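Fold it.
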Amino acid sequence: MRSPEARWSVIVVVLAAAGVFALWPRTTEPAAGAGTPATGAPWRVEGPSTMAAPAGPEVAALRGATGLRPCPAPLPGASAPAGPLAGIVVPCLGAPGQVDLATALAGRPAVLNVWASWCGPCREEIPVLDSYAARPGAVAVVGIDVRDDAAAALRLLGELRARYPSVVDTEGALWDALEVPFAIPSNYVLRPDGSVSRVDPPLPFRSPDEIDRTVRRYLDGTP
């Protein structure tokens, strides 16, 4: 028969283990393209993984139906500035060809939005980003689709009638370069000199005005 001290020792160990489990990071990611309700806060993910490049007749047809704007292309004489995006080449979502983001956006500011079709908060934020992108004087908005299925991503953009372009992070290179904090959506402001800042606090944008204020704040150097 156990002594009272022994029984209390067992209880303490069990409670301590339960506390560790409660604090252990757990992904909230459902299966890609499964369709999930929005939660209003960034969803934790386990990290990047490789995904198939967006290709095939279904993907091409979906892109045509969504009416997405073309992925960014370099200005004449542009060269990639130094910065975390330098040398990273990724496919354009639903379109042929590859995009060197650093060169394509050289000398121009942009908002980079890391997202996926299975992410509920992303679904809420995409229309806000699209409304901002359509404003006169807005900087470029480029989505970065991660851990996703290209067809599911295009279907969501079509459903939400979003028109700004996205690239696909097939190998996780952009995820690593941007140091995405294991939660999406995650937003970044790219400066003309190639430097990038993650938007803090890391919460989904709620209005085009909020995006405009945030962009101005980071471009002015006062995050």
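Residues 6-39 have pLDDT under 50 and may be disordered.
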